[in-house]
Design goal:
heterodimer, A: about 120 residues, alpha+beta, Arc Repressor Mutant, subunit A, 3-stranded antiparallel sheet, 5 helices, 3 strands, about 15% strand, disordered N terminus, B: about 900 residues, 10-stranded mixed sheet, 8-stranded mixed sheet, 28 helices, 26 strands
Chain lengths: ~120, ~900
Amino acid sequence: MNMKKTAQRDLFPGALEMMILRTLKRQPLHGYALVQHIKRSSNDLLQIEEGSLYPALQRLLKEELVEANWGISSTNRRVRIYKLTAAGAKRLESEVSSFERMLQGITQVLAPEKT
Amino acid sequence: MKWLNQLFSRRGQYDALGEEIQAHLDEKVEELVAGGMSREDANHAARREFGNPALTEEDGREVWRWASIEDFFTDIRHGWRRLLHNPVFTAVGLLTIAIGIGANAAVFSVVDSVLLRPLNYPHSEQLVSLHQVAPGAAGLADFENGLYLSASMYFTYAEHNQAFEAMGVWNSSVANITSMAEPEQVRALGVSDGVLQALAVPPEIGRWLSQEDQDPHGPQRVMLSDGYWRRHFGGDRSVIGRNLIVDSHSREIVGVMPPGFRVVNEDFDVIVTLGFDRAKLILAGFGLHGIARLKPGVTIAQANADVTRMLPIWMGSWSNGPGSDPHWYDRWQITPQLRPLKQEVVGNVSDVLWVVMGTLALVMLIACANVTNLLLVRVEARQQELAVRTALGAAWGRIVRGLLVESTMLGLLGGALGALLASAGVRFLVAIGPANLPRLQEISLDGRTLAFTLVLSVISGLLFGLIPALKYAGPRTSLELRSAGPNASVSKERHRARNLLVIGQVAMALVLLVSAGLMIRTFRALRTVEPGFTDAARLQLMRINIPESLVGEPEMVTRTQNAILDKLAAIPGVKSAGFVNAMPMEGFESGWDGIYAEDKNYAESESVPMRFFKYGSPGFLQTAGTRMVAGREITWNEIYGLRPVVMISENLAREMWGSPSAAIGKRVRQYDSMPWHEVVGVVQDVREHGVQDPAPEAVYWPPYAANIFGPGPVNTIRTMTFEIRSDRAGMEAFLNEVRQAVWSVNSNLPIASVRTMQDVYEKSLARTSFTLVMLGIAGAMALALGIVGIYGVISYTVSQRQREIGIRLALGAQRSDVLQMILRQGATMALIGVIIGMACAFALTRLMTNLLFGVTAHDPLTYAAVAALLLVVALLACYIPARRAMRVDPIVALRYE
C-alpha cells in the first residue's frame, strides 16, 4: 500500500487507522464527525489533514474492518456512516496491545534520563 | 471471491468517496459560516484543512487497485491498439515469427516423438537390445548390427542369466498364409519365449506366445496383429482357437496384439514361435535379434558383465559338430554391447534430427533478429513519446514493461499462428520423412509440442522486445527530448544495434547455406557413385516365395523359378530377367562367411575374413546392369549339373590374387568338406548396403547346389527377388502381365514387395534427401530473412539520412558517390557477417560429418560459393534503397526542415 502520502510525518504508520477503529468502537460515525471527534479528543495536538482520513477509511473498508452504510447526518446530509465490524474490533484489540507494548518499551528506554 | 466482488463494486466505491468528500467539505463550510466566517473564506479554510481533495480521492481509489495487474492489462490494451494501428508492421512481424516458430514446433514434435518420448512399452527404460560385437570376425565386425545371436546363445542366455527379468530372440521374415480366400504373403515375426514377456504389452485378446508353444514337435500357435485381425476376421473375438495355415503348417490362433504394437521397429501381420529343436542346435547360426528386460536396479554394465560370464558357458555347452573346436569363437572376441532398446529403435536418425533442429533454431534466431529490427525502428519512431512520458515521471520499468508486453504479445500471436503452421508442417514432414524414420506413426502434435511452442513464443517475444526496451527506455532518454526531432540526423551510434543484428543474420544465414550446400554436394557425390546396377527405374522387382507345400524337392524349386523366368522373359517389352536372393539395398540380409583359396596356405583353424554371400540365377547380373569384369556368368547347365563353380567380386579378386583376370580358374571353398569351386567370373563391386557404404567383398554362389548352406544334401533358396529389365517397369498393365506370367507357372504363388529398383535406391538415399530438403528449406528461409533484414536496415538508413544526402548533393556530390556510399555500408555489414559466419560454419559443420559423403565439412568450394552468393544477394538488397538515395532531390530534402 501507498503509505508515504497517507501517513503524516508526526504519526507512525497505522496510527490513524488505530484511532479511527478506536473512535468507531464507541459509536458509528460519518467521515466528518469522525475527523472532528479525533481532533477534539486529541485536543488538536495531532496535526492531521482532514482529507487523509478518507484513504485510511478506504483501506479499512477493503480489509472489512469497518463497514459503511448510507444515512442522514445531524445536518441532514446524505453521508456514509462507518461502523466497526467484528474483525475490526479484534484488530483494534491486537493493535492497541501491540501499541502499548511498544509504548512501554519506548518509555523504559526513555525513563533513566528522567530519574 | 471477496476480491472479485471488490473488483466489480469499486466503481460504486469511487463515486461514494467523491460524494462523501463533497459532503465533508459542505459540512465544514457550513460550520465555519455558522461561526461567523464569510462563505468565501470558509471555502478556503475548509480546503486548507482538508488538503487536496483530488489527491485524496486518488489515494482512496488506489486502495482498491491491484496496481501491477491492472497496469499489465493496460499495457496489453495499449499494445494491442498499437499492433492494430500498424497492420503492415504487425503482419510482417507475425508472419516472420509464425514461420520461425511453426518450423521449430513441427521439427520439435518429430524430435520429441522420435527421440525424447519413451518407447511405447511399459517401463521401456529397462528394455535393452542384446547387441554384441565380434571384432575378430572380420566382415561382421564393422557391420551396423554387430553379431546377431544364435539359437544356442538364446538358450544359454535365457537359462543362465542373472540380469534379465525376461529375454528372448526374434527375427522377421515373410510367411505364406494359405487358409484364406487368396494365398497371401504376410510379414511374420518369429519370436522365442521371452520376447513378448520382455516387451510386456498385454494382448488385446487371448494370450501371449510362451514357453509351452515353443516345442517344435508340439502344437503350433500364432498371434495376429490388430490390423490383420480386423482385415481378415473383422475384429471377431471368437477367432481365438481357430486355425491358420502358415507356411503349410496349421497353427492355432492364441491371441491378438493391440493396435500400434511393434517389436522394436518391426511391423508385422502374424507372430509365430521360433520352434528351435534343442537337440539339433549348434553354436553357429547368428541370425537372431536379442531383446531383454533388465531386472530392476541392474545397469547395462552389470548386464554386459553377465553376458560376458555366460559366453564360456555357451561355448562349453554346444558345438559345431563332432571334431570342431567350440572355443574357436574365442578368436572372434565376442563382446556384449547391450544398448537401450530406444537407441536400437532410433538408430542413426538422431544425427539428422538434431542437425535439422539446430538448423531451424538458427532460422528462429534470424527471424527474431528481423523482428527486433522492426521493433527498433518502431520504438525509434515513438522515441519522442517515450521521452515525454519519462519527463512526465513515468517510471523506467513501466515503459520497459510496456515494450516487453507488446513484443511478447507479438510473440504469442505469432506462436499461435506458428502452431497452425506446425500442424500442417508435421503432416508435411511425415510425408517427406525418410520411409525408415523410426516411430513415424507416433509423430503427432501434442501437448508437449504446444507447450514447447508457447515457451518458444514467450522467450522469442521477450528476446526481441528486450533490445529495443533496453536501448530506448534507458534513463538517459530524457536527453533525447530536445534533439529527437523527426528530421534530425541520426548518429552512427544509434544504428549500431541494428547493424549488429544484420551482421548476425548474415552470419547465421551463411552457416545454414553452407550446411545446405554441403548436403547438396553430398547428394551429388552419392548420385555419381556407381552402385553396381544401372537404370534402376527400368528394373522391376518382386519377391516370390515357393513354399514347401507347393513344391517339395529343391531341384523342382529351382526349375519352377527357372520356368517363371522364362515366362517373364516372354512378356512383350522385357529385355531380360533374373533372380537373386536379395537385390542391393533391398534390406533382405544375405549371409556372411569366410572362404579359403586352394592356392593359399592357412594355419590350422585360422579365421578368414567374412565375405558377403549371394545366390543368383544366370543373367541376373546382366539384367541388373552389373558388369562382368572378367570371365563369365554361371550357366543353367552348370547349375543343374551341380558343377562347383562360383563368381567373386572385383575387390575380393584384387584382395586375394591382385587382379580380376588372375582370379579366373582359381578354386575356393567355404569349409573343409566342401568341394573346391572354380572361379568362373569376376563381378563389378556392388554397393550392397546403400550408396554410402563401401561395397563388401562378395561371393556369388549358384542358387541351387550341394553343400552351399553348410554340410548337407542339395539345397536351394525358396524366396528370391525376381528382376525384370523392361521399359514398362512399374506400369500397372505390365505388372498385371507379370502376375499372370507367374501364376501361369503356379497359381498359388504369392507375390510380394513389388517395386522398381529406383524405389529401393531412393529409399536408401532417403536419409540424405530428407536432410537435404530440410536444410534447403532452412537455408532458403535464412536467405530470405537475411535479405529482408539488410534491405530493411539500409532503406531505413536512407530515409533517415535523406536530409544529409540532400545537403551532400546540394554541395556538389555526384549521385554515383551517394550510390557507392550506401552500397559500401551494406557491403561492409555483409562482409563482416560472412567472415563471422565462415568461422562459425567452420566450427559447426563438423557436427554433421556423419551425414556427409564425398565432401569434407570444410569443403572450400561450398564455402566460397555460399559466401559469394550471400555477398551478391546482400548488394542487390542494398541496391534498391541505394538507388532511391541517389534520386533524392536536394530541394525537397532541404525544404523538409
